[in-house]
């Protein structure tokens, strides 16, 4: 979130100047509430990467066995830890729809998590997010806590969600992609 006044580092594609993107943009809009977010407009500079990104993140967001609220908690916490305001703003409404309270949303933006605001599975997810995002290596007790709440498939999907959304924030911030308006 530093240096927001600095200009974006990649252009944002549009169908007016690149009509060959129409099919890709239609696919994105169908998965993203009828619009093409700036992240996808930037990624469309490389249509193959954009299409692969869309497929992966649609799968992670819409078809994972990890409960929606826990996925959104993970995404919001990653955004905070990586200072990726775009990502936090984009996912906040989804977290609210999934049942996040205002106190939880405010706490996810703090340096320390108040575990009394979250249930056991959410605390396990948030600890895992912290380890994967800050240190990459995950200590056994943190991973073992996941086993209490999630089967192997859910643990794998959660790991990919956390890794993937760390990638999202890094792309957003490195390229200074502007917020959607």
What report would you give on this structure?
- The protein is an all-alpha fold.
- The chain has two domains: 44 residues, no CATH class; 107 residues, AhpD-like, CATH 1.20.1290.
- It is built from nine helices and no strands.
- Helix 4 runs parallel beside helix 7.
Taking pLDDT < 50 over at least 5 consecutive residues as the criterion, the unreliable ranges are: none
Q: What is the CATH H-level superfamily of the largest domain?
A: AhpD-like
Largest sheet: none
Measured between the Cα atoms of the first and last residue, the distance is 17 Å
User: What's the CATH class label of the largest domain?
Assistant: Mainly Alpha
Tally of strands: 0
Number of domains: 2
> What's the rounded overall pLDDT mean?
93
Q: How are helices and strands ordered from N to C?
A: HHHHHHHHH
């Amino acid at each position: 979130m530093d240096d927001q006044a600095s200009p974006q580092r990649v252009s944002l594609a549009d169908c007016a100047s690149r009509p060959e993107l129409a099919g890709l943009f239609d696919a994105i809009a169908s998965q993203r509430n009828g619009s093409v977010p700036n992240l996808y407009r930037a990624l469309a500079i490389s249509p193959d990467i954009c299409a692969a990104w869309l497929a992966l993140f649609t799968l992670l967001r819409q078809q994972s066995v990890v409960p929606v609220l826990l996925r959104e908690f993970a995404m919001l916490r990653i955004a905070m830890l990586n200072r990726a305001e775009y990502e936090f703003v984009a996912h906040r409404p989804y977290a609210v729809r999934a049942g996040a309270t205002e106190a939880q949303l405010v706490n996810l933006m703090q340096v320390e998590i108040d575990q009394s605001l979250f249930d056991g599975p959410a605390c396990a997810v948030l600890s895992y997010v912290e380890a994967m995002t800050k240190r990459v290596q995950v200590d056994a007790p943190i991973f073992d806590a996941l086993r209490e709440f999630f089967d192997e498939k859910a643990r794998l999907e959660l790991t990919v969600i956390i890794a993937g959304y760390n990638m999202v924030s890094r792309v957003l911030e490195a390229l200074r992609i502007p917020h959607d308006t």
